[in-house]
Design brief:
The complex is a heterodimer. In chain A, strands 2, 4, 5, 9, 10 and 11 form a 6-stranded mixed β-sheet that branches. A 5-stranded antiparallel β-sheet of chain A has the order 1-3-8-7-6, with no helix packed on it. Chain A is mainly beta. Chain A is built from no helices and 11 strands. Chain A has strands spanning about 5, 10-15, 20-25, 30-40, 45-50, 55-60, 60-65, 70-75, 85-90, 100, 105-110. In chain B, the strands form 2 sheets. In chain B, strands 2, 4, 5, 6, 9, 10 and 11 form a 7-stranded mixed β-sheet that branches. A 4-stranded antiparallel β-sheet of chain B has the order 1-3-8-7, with no helix packed on it. By secondary structure, chain B is an all-beta fold. Chain B is globular and about 35 Å long. Classes of the chains: A mainly beta, B mainly beta. Chains A and B meet through strand 4, strand 5 and strand 9 of A and strand 4, strand 5 and strand 10 of B.
């Protein structure tokens, strides 16, 4: 059974204080690992897809990396507008487009 | 291009009532799915469809029905609502059924009393 565990559950940062979110996974043949951002009362918003170990992707202050067992979402010099819940999900090769999600990390960036 | 549109945004049902959550996408996506999101549980797949006329069960299908008569629409039916179905429901779609980015709607908040 595919499993995704995200840590920490919640993270409070001061503006400018860089940090990393962890996503550990087990999957029977990884097709892709997805990161989404979710604001309160909204649907998940796509950020990145990573397909193979060693791959990295960046968008503004966010950088996602992937190993064979985990992914990290690095937030560099965060701003208050980066406050959100960040969701990690895996897609198995034999599972069509089904995503298995972790519980998310709630990030609060204080000015 | 509105993306994935869900209605209603909020709904309160009494136990035993039935209702349909509507989902429409205007991106000509073949793949559509429904997830529910509960505190501490993450998003879980209810049903999905890889094209018009084709549907299949996800992780938590009990108590829900779906149909896919057109490419654009994928309604989710609650046959006899139960308090355990109180949740936030998200419809999602993607182009193709394998490894493509999945885009989500804004969600439907359902409370069953």
């Amino acid at each position: 059974e595919d499993q995704v565990t995200q840590s920490p559950e919640a993270l409070r940062l001061q503006e400018g204080e860089s940090s990393s979110l962890n996503c550990s996974y087990t999957v029977s043949g990884l097709r892709g690992l997805f990161w989404y951002r979710q604001d309160p009362g909204k649907g998940p918003e796509f950020l990145f897809t990573l397909y193979s170990a060693g791959e990295e992707k960046e968008k503004e202050r966010l950088k996602a990396t992937l190993t064979k067992k985990e992914s990290f979402l690095h937030i560099t010099a965060p701003k208050p507008e980066d406050s959100a819940t960040y969701l990690c999900a895996v897609q198995a090769q034999a599972a069509g487009n089904k995503l298995t999600f972790g519980g998310g990390t709630r990030v609060l960036v204080k000015p | 291009n509105a993306g994935v549109t869900q209605t209603p945004k909020f709904q309160v049902l009494k136990t035993g009532q039935s209702m349909t959550l509507q989902c429409a996408q205007d991106m000509n996506h073949e793949y559509m799915s429904w997830y529910r999101q509960d505190p501490g549980m993450g998003l879980r797949l209810i049903h999905y469809s890889v094209g018009a006329g084709i549907t299949d069960q996800g992780e938590v299908p009990n108590g829900y029905n779906v149909s896919r008569s057109t490419t654009e629409d994928f309604p989710l039916r609650l046959l006899s609502a139960a308090p355990s179905q109180t949740s936030v429901y998200f419809c999602a779609s993607s182009y193709g059924a394998n490894g493509n980015t999945i885009y989500f709607g804004e969600g439907s908040w359902l409370t069953v009393v």
